[in-house]
Amino acid sequence: xxxxxxxxxxxxxxxxxxxxxxxxxxxxxxxxxxxxxxxxxxxxxxxxxxxxxxxxxxxxxxxxxxxxxxxxxxxxxxxxxxxxxxxxxxxxxxxxxxxxxxxxxxxxxxxxxxxxxxxxxxxxxxxxxxxx
Length: 132
Known about the structure:
The structure is a single chain. The protein has a single domain, classed as Nucleotidyltransferase, domain 5 (2-Layer Sandwich). It contains four helices and five strands. It has helices at 35-45, 65-75, 93-104, 107-131; strands at 4-9, 13-20, 23-31, 50-55, 84-89. Helix 3 (93-104) crosses helix 4. The radius of gyration is 14 Å and the shape is globular. The chain starts with a strand and ends with a helix.
């Protein structure tokens, strides 16, 4: 299995998860406006072939206004040049990540955890769908 990076891009913060040799490793989230620099650092540490980016869809599976903003942000990330980009439905990832963080983390640690847990859930679901 090749290495993959997953992103849950928000207006303020972005969750990051990497998959190295089949092992999912949530990373520290990053402020979205500083994302390119952080991704350069992560991507320089290992070889990646794919970036999976969460894309918010509505209940009818249509792209939302936020989806267009995310696609524009991804297009402008120099760090992702050369990687195959796949957008993946992220509708329920944040809600599930919030639930998981309430069960796992103290209140002061939850916000940071939600972003990266959400990126991990997006990647998990993507990989599950790829195996089908």
